[in-house]
């Protein structure tokens, strides 16, 4: 289930469906409830919140019935989690840990003890929120970070508002970092006040409970809706003090994003390359255009999940910032962050992390986020939209208060979080890199795309064939995740179309690192039968197409300023003359020489340009379907299904060449493996003496 978000004022529908829930066991009902809670980002942010059920199960050791706490484990997201996302713990052992608890200063040590409570050898690690579920004396417990509830929880008078809105049905606990201690407090409050349906956690979110899964879910939705309705009825008419400026036209906003994103990326990618995300959704524009933007943005976000993703505060940038203005704004942000780190650090704090901003707010234009990969950048953006919703709600009925700086720091540099970061796998070779591949929906192009995505790159497939593009996108989305790949329908022979596709790539991912010129056709005709139309077609797609794509990419790489890799897919025929295909051969030869000229100009900028020459890649290639295949078979005087063997025997190595073989050569030239190579030609043709380079 992929999460969605509707207007902040609209009431949440109940998604509970008795038919879908019937026949499910208790863990199944818990999973069902979790997935429908996570389906709306207004109920909880991505990866935020957790759910639990106390279920009677058979103890594998004794065979006797025993109470087991099923609770969402560490990692994952409510909306998309599966049954294996839950940790399972002996409930009596977990609550028995109170005897081992030495007090607030030592609460982090309790996390390691959760493992000793594991039921049935379940490998899913229990999260730090586990005691908040375990100590509540109710069967079913939900914890969500609903925007409307956090708006109340992040208001100056949060406790009074909670009482006023929920009429004594919800308790209130002031902000405290979640952990064992907060679990004990929450449990006591629930136990001592049987009339309560839940508790609002100051500056954080909501806990709710019920006797059955359905009752618990419905209570959560009802409480969130009460908050939504109350805010709508009691809020000021003008959010954020009203508009200070108007949004620019949509087209202009994208142009500015395309200019600013590579410029920011160049300045913040010193330690590792970053990937960007841009949004100009209405709620974002309302905030960035508002009078209160700078005041509210400076207060920082409130829910603890938020600033782990977004950093304590965003950076507000003017849309016409030039290089000098960007330099100074970014340097000031870094200095500010370093000062915050120095003020708040403790003797055992981890070292300061990347001091650059994650969130960039641009009045009249929208919001840009940068992170180590696309999903993280997109999620940071979604989190900041949650934060905007919280600030809108809180500041319209009260005064919004961010989390105290030291508290924010304690979460950001929590040793338990640091341990999680240390456990993350090493980034892949092309992590943080963006590649544009023309002809990306074709046989060789899609093999290149898969190779580069497999190494962690984000890929834009640019192709004229919309149908092939759509089916490749669907397939790649499943294999590599939707964030890793986008498509651009374009024609390499049209300057405007190439410029637009390049801009889409830059706005889609924040910049560009790898350009693969690959879109092509094949044609054959005896020289005297070569029509001007056929000649021009070859020149347009293979010559001009490579020129336009390379030029657009080159400009971005130059502007961005940290070099890049361009790879041209030419052909054996660029090296070896071939009878009956003069237009094709001449255009392919032009590509090779264009690559060399570009290598010369690009070298001082760190832009490397290399060529890969395929030959006779029949499998997967659309060129090798239909007419071309028939012609080749006829001219070789064989059946179509014998062609592959003909080409195999023609090669020196007597082997077939596959799209994956070409992709391997491209990967070499696209990655740092070939950092010291430019102006080069690599034949991937199973050996052809005529094509030997000299
Ligand atoms: N397959 C081979 O044997 C072979 C041999 C030597 C060179 N090549 C070269 O490899 C490249 C890829 O070929 P392939 O075998 O994967 O063929 P393919 O037909 O499978 O892929 C080529 C892709 O380019 C796209 N394309 C064509 N014209 C376009 C345009 N004007 N704008 C945007 N996209 C356009 C097509 O829609 C197609 O998806 C070509 O440049 C080709 O000349 C292929
Ligand atoms: Zn929480």
| Major β-sheet annotation | 7 strands, mixed
- CATH fold group of the largest domain: L-fuculose-1-phosphate Aldolase
Poorly predicted spans: none
How many strands?
18
Shape: elongated
Q: Structural class of the secondary structure composition?
A: alpha/beta
What's the alpha carbon Rg, rounded to whole Å? 29 Å
Give the rounded overall mean pLDDT. Answer: 94
- List bound small molecules: nicotinamide-adenine-dinucleotide, zinc ion
**Could you state the CATH homologous superfamily of the largest domain?**
Class II aldolase/adducin N-terminal domain
Can you tell me about this structure?
- With 694 residues, the chain is of the alpha/beta class.
- It folds into three domains: 18-234, Class II aldolase/adducin N-terminal domain (L-fuculose-1-phosphate Aldolase, 3-Layer(aba) Sandwich); 250-423, L-fuculose-1-phosphate Aldolase (3-Layer(aba) Sandwich), CATH 3.40.225; 434-617 and 658-685, NAD(P)-binding Rossmann-like Domain (Rossmann fold, 3-Layer(aba) Sandwich).
- The chain is 45% helix and 14% strand.
- The strands form three sheets. The protein has a seven-stranded mixed β-sheet with strand order 3-2-1-4-7-6-5, sandwiched between helices.
- Strand 15 (514-517), helix 21 and strand 16 (564-569) form a beta-alpha-beta unit.
- Helix 10 (250-268) packs across helix 14.
- The two termini are 56 Å apart.
- The mean pLDDT is 94.
- The site of nicotinamide-adenine-dinucleotide has 31 residues, from helix 18 and helix 21.
């Amino acid at each position: 289930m992929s999460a969605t978000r509707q207007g902040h004022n609209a009431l949440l529908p109940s998604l509970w469906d008795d038919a879908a829930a019937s026949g499910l066991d208790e863990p199944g009902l818990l999973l069902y409830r979790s997935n429908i809670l996570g389906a709306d980002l207004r109920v909880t942010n991505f990866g935020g919140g957790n759910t639990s059920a106390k279920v009677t199960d058979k103890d594998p050791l004794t065979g006797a019935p025993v109470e087991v706490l099923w609770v969402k484990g560490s990692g994952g997201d409510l909306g998309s989690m599966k049954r294996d996302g839950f940790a399972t713990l002996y409930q009596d052992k977990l609550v028995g840990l109170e005897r081992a608890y030495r007090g607030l200063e030592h609460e982090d040590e309790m996390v390691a003890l959760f493992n000793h409570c594991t039921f049935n050898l379940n490998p899913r690690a229990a999260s730090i929120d586990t005691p908040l579920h375990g100590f509540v004396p109710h069967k079913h417990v939900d914890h969500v970070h609903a925007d409307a509830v956090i708006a109340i929880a992040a208001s100056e008078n949060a406790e009074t508002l909670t009482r006023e809105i929920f009429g004594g049905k919800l308790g209130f606990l002031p902000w405290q970092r979640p952990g064992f201690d907060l679990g004990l407090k929450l449990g006591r409050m629930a136990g001592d006040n049987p009339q309560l349906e839940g508790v609002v956690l100051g500056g954080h979110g909501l806990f709710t409970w019920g006797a059955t899964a359905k009752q618990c879910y419905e209570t959560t939705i009802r409480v969130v809706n009460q908050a939504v309705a109350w805010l709508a009825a009691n809020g000021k008419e003008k959010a954020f003090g009203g508009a200070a400026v108007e949004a620019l036209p949509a087209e202009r906003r994208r142009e500015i994003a395309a200019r600013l994103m590579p410029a920011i990326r160049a300045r913040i990618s010193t330690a590792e390359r970053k990937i960007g995300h841009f949004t100009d959704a209405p709620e974002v524009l309302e905030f960035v255009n508002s009078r209160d933007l700078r005041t509210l943005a400076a207060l920082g976000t409130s829910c603890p999940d938020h600033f782990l993703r977004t950093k304590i505060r965003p950076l507000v940038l003017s849309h016409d910032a030039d290089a000098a203005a960007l330099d100074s704004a970014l340097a000031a942000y870094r200095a500010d962050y370093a000062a915050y780190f120095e003020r708040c650090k403790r003797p055992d704090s981890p070292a300061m992390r990347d001091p650059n901003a994650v969130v960039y707010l641009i009045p009249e234009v929208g919001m840009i986020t940068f992170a180590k990969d696309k999903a993280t950048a997109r999620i940071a953006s979604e989190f900041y939209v949650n934060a905007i919703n919280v600030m809108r709600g809180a500041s319209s009925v009260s005064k919004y208060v961010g989390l105290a700086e030291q508290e924010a720091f304690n979460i950001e540099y929590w040793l338990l979080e640091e341990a999680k970061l240390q456990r993350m796998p090493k980034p892949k070779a092309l992590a943080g890199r963006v590649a544009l591949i023309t002809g990306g929906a074709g046989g060789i192009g899609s093999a290149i795309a898969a190779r580069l995505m497999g190494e962690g790159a984000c890929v834009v497939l640019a192709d004229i064939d919309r149908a092939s593009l759509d089916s490749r996108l669907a397939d790649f989305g499943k294999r590599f995740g939707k964030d890793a790949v986008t498509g651009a329908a374009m024609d390499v022979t049209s300057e405007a179309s190439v410029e637009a596709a390049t801009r889409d790539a830059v706005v889609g991912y924040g910049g560009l690192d790898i350009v693969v010129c690959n879109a092509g056709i094949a044609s054959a005709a005896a020289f005297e039968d070569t029509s001007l139309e056929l000649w021009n077609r070859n020149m347009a797609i293979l010559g001009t197409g490579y020129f336009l794509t390379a030029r657009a990419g080159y400009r971005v790489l130059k502007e961005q300023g940290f070099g890049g890799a361009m790879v041209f897919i030419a052909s054996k025929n660029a090296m070896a003359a071939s009878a009956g295909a003069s237009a094709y051969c001449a255009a392919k030869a032009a590509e090779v020489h264009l690559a060399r000229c570009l290598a010369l100009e690009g070298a001082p900028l760190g832009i490397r340009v290399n060529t890969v020459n395929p030959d006779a890649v029949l499998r997967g290639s659309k060129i090798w379907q239909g007419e071309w295949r028939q012609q080749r078979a006829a001219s070789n005087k064989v059946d179509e299904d014998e062609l592959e063997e003909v080409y195999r025997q023609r090669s020196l190595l007597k082997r077939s060449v596959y799209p994956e073989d070409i992709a391997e050569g491209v990967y070499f030239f696209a990655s740092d493996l070939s950092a010291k190579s430019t102006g080069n030609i690599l034949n991937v043709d199973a050996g052809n003496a005529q094509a030997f380079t000299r």
